[in-house]
From TrEMBL:
CDD domains named in the record: OAT_like (cd00610)
UniProt-listed InterPro entries: Aminotrans_3, Aminotrans_3_PPA_site, PyrdxlP-dep_Trfase, PyrdxlP-dep_Trfase_major, PyrdxlP-dep_Trfase_small
Keyword Transferase appears in the UniProt entry: yes
EC number: 2.6.1.19, 2.6.1.22
Gene3D superfamilies attached to this UniProt entry: Aspartate Aminotransferase, domain 1, Type I PLP-dependent aspartate aminotransferase-like (Major domain)
The encoding gene: gabT2
Pfam family, one: Aminotran_3
Similarity field: Belongs to the class-III pyridoxal-phosphate-dependent aminotransferase family.
Molecular function GO labels: (S)-3-amino-2-methylpropionate transaminase activity; 4-aminobutyrate:2-oxoglutarate transaminase activity; pyridoxal phosphate binding
Domain of life according to the entry: Bacteria
Protein name from the UniProt record: 4-aminobutyrate aminotransferase-2
Enzyme class, spelled out: transferase
Keywords: Aminotransferase, Pyridoxal phosphate, Transferase
Cofactor(s), by name: pyridoxal 5'-phosphate
Amino acid sequence: MSDLLARRTRLLGPNVPTFYERPLQIVRGEGVWLFDDTGRRYLDCYNNVAHVGHCHPRVVAAIAAQASVLNTHTRYLHEGILTYGERLTAKFSHDLNQMLMTCTGSEANDVALRMAQAMTGKTGLIATDNTYHGNTTAVAHLSTRRPPIGGYPPHIRRVPAPDSLAPLGGSLAAQPQAFAEGVARAIAELEASGHGFAGIMLCPIFANEGTPGIGPGFLDPTVEVVRRAGGLILCDEVQPGFGRVGTHWWGHDFLGFAPDVVTLGKPMGNGHPVAAVIARPEVMAAFRNAFGYFNTFAGNPVSCAAASAVLDVIEDEGLVENAREVGAYALGLLRELRHPLIADTRGFGLFFGIEFARDGQPATEFCGRVVEAAKDAGLLLGRVGRGQHILKMRPPMPFSRANAAQLVETLDAILRKMPA
Ligand code: PMP
């Protein structure tokens, strides 16, 4: 392991993140399980990419079958992308019925930003002050993990994210209005600055912000403000999409609003790099006419076979229903966990957060120790939030009640041993 780490640093350079103080070498995956080089197995409670389970045999077989027949770009006619796109867009309402394929969520978001600019003829964009939407230059300007060299460009505005430790002021219940007011101020600034307002990019459940315990209707005041200003709502569904929220296929349907553009990624190919933008026809037309678009790899027959197999498995194995049922069961158990530093426990389907705070401030170091101890106990968890103080759990969708019980029992044992 230490040899691999040294080779990695020598080859890839500094600051290439690993999980854990002593990184794991994972060599195999199956369902909700990952196996390390010693054969030890870990319950994966973090990986939303392996949406239908690691190495699902139907996805593997679909990739292999198509790869052995044809893989090429989208400048030839091919049935695969059409069949897939028709199935996928049928899962959307609000006239979101056209698709553009990319290979990553970052590219999808990059296209979405340009769609807003093509529709409005303006350049101003808004995101929250604690988020990540990807790694192209344009999209990185919205992300807050590392400010760009030279600072944020003047056509970008960042608004305070909803936060259960309440920096927006007042209780979470008062935050829909406070959030919308932040957006209205940013729009006014963009209009006054001459950039104008093109659109706002949001994850509907604010996954990277820390999945605050918002519910249906939270974004209604914001949607109204954006619509009144003539901007577009760009909905980043890279994390909540494909049924993870349990009640719906998409986070925006759970919250109950109609976006202009939706971006998809991570879970879409179960690990195969495939992503997409879904838009209303007039938005797609404005983008295609303004920019044109070709992507050498995106939408190729193998990617479409992988993505189609993911839809098959979600439907045939009832995974959206599973997310709803097991998610509710797991959330009930997680809410019974007791520790003086637990400030809040929340979840949407198979997406959970436990927030640790000390005197109302993020308990960053404590949360880090929980993640490390969980790994030692055979559980893979992540963390998120402005203080990296929120345990983040997003297991593969076939997560069972037994898996949920194991997660909560293990966490309980860990928390009992960790003094505040
Ligand atoms: N949007 C969100 C909300 C994400 O979490 C991520 C990845 N963490 C991305 C976009 C970028 O996706 P990708 O890594 O596929 O470019």
